[in-house]
Amino acid sequence: MLFHQYKTRVYPLCGYECSMIYLFDVISNIMPKHTSLEQIEQYIIDVTISLRHKHNLRQSDLGKIINTSPSFIGNVENYNNPAKYNLKHINALAEYFNLAPKYFMPEKPLSAK
Known about the structure:
The chain is mainly alpha-helical. The protein has helices spanning 20-30, 39-54, 59-65, 70-77, 87-97; strands at residues 10-13, 16-19. The chain has a domain at 39-107: lambda repressor-like DNA-binding domains (434 Repressor (Amino-terminal Domain)), CATH 1.10.260.40.
């Protein structure tokens, strides 16, 4: 699995620490991946989906946070659609969740397709 190299990184979420590898493994085992996105783009989408679920937010809530429509969030999370988050979106999400923007990025470079 792509994210196994990050097992030792621990993230504080919801008042306790949990390894994001667990969340990525769960998501990757139940959801197909975008076929046209780069691994780094998929990684950012997976992190955002994990945070949305952890904080019990709806797609419409995320749309308000990043000042887009709920349908945009649906398009990003739809694995048949090439929509993706940009740096402005990442910054808004980081501010809302009180995280550094680098939280949405992998610790090490991901190999190209």
